[in-house]
Amino acid sequence: MSAASGHRSRPEPDPERPEPQRAAAPSGSTGLGHLDIEQRLALLKKQFREQTAPDAAAEAEAAPKPATKPASHVLLRRGIKTLVAIAVVAAVVWLPTQRLFQTTSVEAVVNARTLTLRAPIEGVVSFDSATPAAVGASFNAGAPLLHVTNSRADRARLDDLRRMAERAETDVAVLKDRLDNATRMQAQYSEQTQLFRQGRIAQLEARLQESQNNLSSATTRQEETAAILERATSLDAQGFQPKAQLDKARRDNTIARFDALSIEQRIKGIQVELDAARNGTFLGDSYNDRPTSAQRADDLRLQMSELSAQLKEKQATLEQLKKDVALEDARYRRNFAAPVIVPSSGTVWEVLTAQGEHVERGQDLVRMLDCNAAVVTAVVSESDYNRLSIGTQATFRFRDGDTRPMIGHVVSLTGVATAASNFAIAPSSLRKEQYRVTVDVPALNGQGCKLGRTGQVVFGNKVDAPVAATAQ
Q1: How far is the C-alpha of 67 from the C-alpha of 75, rounded, in Å?
Q2: Does 64 have pLDDT greater than 60?
Q3: What is the pLDDT of residue 174?
Q4: What is the pLDDT of residue 14?
Q5: How many CB atoms sit inside 10 A of residue 229's CB?
Q6: What pTM, to 2 d.p., does this model score?
Q7: Between residues 179 and 139, which one has the greater pLDDT?
């Protein structure tokens, strides 16, 4: 037996040994006894083809022959088919080939910067029960995210300022009362002075009138004595009157003349006093130029001036103290309770504190995604990186879903250096290449936070001109 084949081999026929008699084989199988199974199967297939060949030829001769088309139609159809095949092949080959000549990213992911909200004061953290600061929650700009309360805030300065303000208010009230009393008394003394002045003027006018009347009498008497002296002188010259009578007449005339002169001078003095009284000055032998009521009114007027100055000073001090109290009260309120305000619309990325936790001033509390400043972080090969520059135009497409192109430009080329650490997704997590590029895509800002979605960036060769800053 043969070990390679694994089948039992047929024994070799002995030519000297006569073969045994076999039964007569049927028609068509004559001479098959000495063949094995494979040889018999091949012989049967050959006989079958010989029997079916005449039938197929007869059927082919009986079938109607198709009409022969012109050669030009055949060439046209062949030409159209050839052109279509060439176009398909060109499209299939050109699209991949075109991408080989484009500068594209190896990896690209939508990224956003994180905003770290820190504790403005020392205190205990409390969340709003209506809108808790949970991871994934969205907040609009200006919304309070959480509150920090410090029950141990120092208010000693505020209390001191309030006490000083209350004391200043008391002083202002006292000064106002004193000023009102002084004003009232000064008005009374001024009224008394006016009445005294009016009475003094009336008195002087009466004395003036009396003196004028006395002057008239003295003038008349002087005229009489002058006439008597004239007669006495005439009689003395004739020797009819004694010498003593003449001397008496002369004396009486002299006295009468001096009495008239004295009354005239008294009238002048009264007139001076009257004019001074009318001007507010009082002259006399038994008092000074101002009556007691006028002097008291003057003292009260001076006191009123001093009180007014003190009142203005106290009022100014009170106003300043009120401002200081307001500022200190605002400072105390800021140190007592302070809300943590969301600076820009975004989504909570990480919560670093808990309800009731005591935090220090400046401690990190929450990190938020700035959804209004989404960018694309991409990595490229070294050769592509060396062809890029700040401002290079770029087109970003998502790999699935909305694949519409979004125009942007390169804003940062960090290469193998460590990129900014405030990105939500660290650029170092893109590991297929080491050269990192940041692309600003404005169209992403109005589509919400699509952080983490992947895509592809195709860079152009044109560099945008620097954009001038516009005044706001």
Answers
A1: 17
A2: no
A3: 94
A4: 44
A5: 19
A6: 0.50
A7: 179
In the chain, where are the structural domains located? 104-143+345-463, 158-309
From 3.40.50.300, 1.10.15.40, 2.40.30.170, 3.40.50.720, which CATH number describes the 104-143+345-463 domain? 2.40.30.170
Residue 372 has a pLDDT of 79
- Find where tokens 């084949």 sit: 5
Does residue 69 register a pLDDT over 70?
Answer: no
* pLDDT score at 312: 94
Q: In angstroms, what CA-CA distances link 448 with 143, 398, 413?
A: 18, 15, 25
Read off the tokens for 424: 């939500």
Please state, in angstroms and rounded to a whole number, the distance separating the CA atoms of residues 304 and 306: 5
Distance between CA atoms of 83 and 144, rounded to whole angstroms?
68
Q: Does domain 158-309 have CATH number 2.60.40?
A: no
Summarize the confidence of residues 234-256 as an average pLDDT: 83
Residue 285 has pLDDT above 70, yes or no: no
> Is 50 exceeded by the pLDDT of residue 465?
no
The full 3-state SS of the chain, as one line of letters, equals: CCCCCCCCCCCCCCCCCCCCCCCCCCCCCCCCCCCCHHHHHHHHHHHHHHHHHHHHHHHHHHCCCCCCCCHHHHHHHHHHHHHHHHHHHHHHHHHHHHHHHCEECCEEEEEEEEEEEECCCCEEEEECCCCCCCCCCEECCCCEEEEEECCCCCCHHHHHHHHHHHHHHHHHHHHHHHHHHHHHHHHHHHHHHHHHHHHHHHHHHHHHHHHHHHHHHHHHHHHHHHHHHHHHHHHHHHCCCCHHHHHHHHHHHHHHHHHHHHHHHHHHHHHHHHHHHHCCCCCCCCCCCCCHHHHHHHHHHHHHHHHHHHHHHHHHHHHHHHHHHHHHHHHHHHHHEEEEECCCCEEEEEECCCCCCEECCCCEEEEEEEEEEEEEEEEECHHHHHCCCCCEEEEEEECCCCCCCEEEEEEEEEECCCCCCCECCCHHHCCCCCEEEEEECHHHHHHCCCCCCEEEEEEEEEECCCCCCCCC
